[in-house]
Amino acid sequence: MRTKFFRLSFVLIFVHLFSFGQSEDMARIDGARYIPLYGRDSTVVEVKDFDLDKYPVTNEQYMDFVRKFPEWQKSKAKKIFADGMYLRSWKDDFELNDDAKLNSPVTYVSWFAAKAYCDCMGKRLPTMDEWEYAAMSDETSKDARIKKSYNEKILSWYEAPRSNENQIGQNPKNYWGVSDLHGLVWEWTSDFNSVMLSGESRKDQDGDNNLFCGSASVGATDLMNYAAFMRYAFRGSIKANYAIKNLGFRCAKDIETP
């Protein structure tokens, strides 16, 4: 009897250790080396295994957060950390506007606010390379960027109005089991403006001068490059205290080894 007890205990401990650090609302992303931007002009980067929220943070989740951390309530957040647009879709500290939904992604949140939320959850914002890596898959492929249909779908979303008002989970989950990386809102990353601070991804040939001019768009080899131009242009145009209508976030987490 004692032997059976110890065997059962060992199995339970093993299962606990194996699953430690990954919650049900997160997906495991197997890392790899990949090219995050302009095909042959970009630098290969390595992404390690990490966990990523399956969905963007919602209004309801963020409301729970500001109840516990009142310094991030709409009426109390310092302007140095969140500009005057902060939580504009909320009537007050704990009530949404009439056209907002609890299960829609929270928007009008600054980078500082998003980082604070993830920190308080024992998580962090994903890096830009992690986000791009997870977002380059469709429902069946780890890297769908070479598919014309995949890129056309992303570009059509960029033109769609008021997508930020939709609820989470209405877009299909991708290869990793993550939803809404495209088709809902733009998302903060921990190093959102790193490309604008250096020309590293283009080998520092011309800095950022050619990233957004007409020649850059015309010279793009395919739709993948143009979609990437738009994401990097948006990230490079904002500051950490900006709160924007179609900008939300989700959290990531390092994989904890037992």
UniProtKB/TrEMBL annotation:
Ranges for domain Sulfatase-modifying factor enzyme-like: 44-253
Gene3D superfamilies: paralog of FGE (formylglycine-generating enzyme) (3.90.1580.10)
Protein name from the UniProt record: Formylglycine-generating enzyme family protein
Species of provenance: Gelidibacter pelagius
UniProt lineage: Bacteria, Pseudomonadati, Bacteroidota, Flavobacteriia, Flavobacteriales
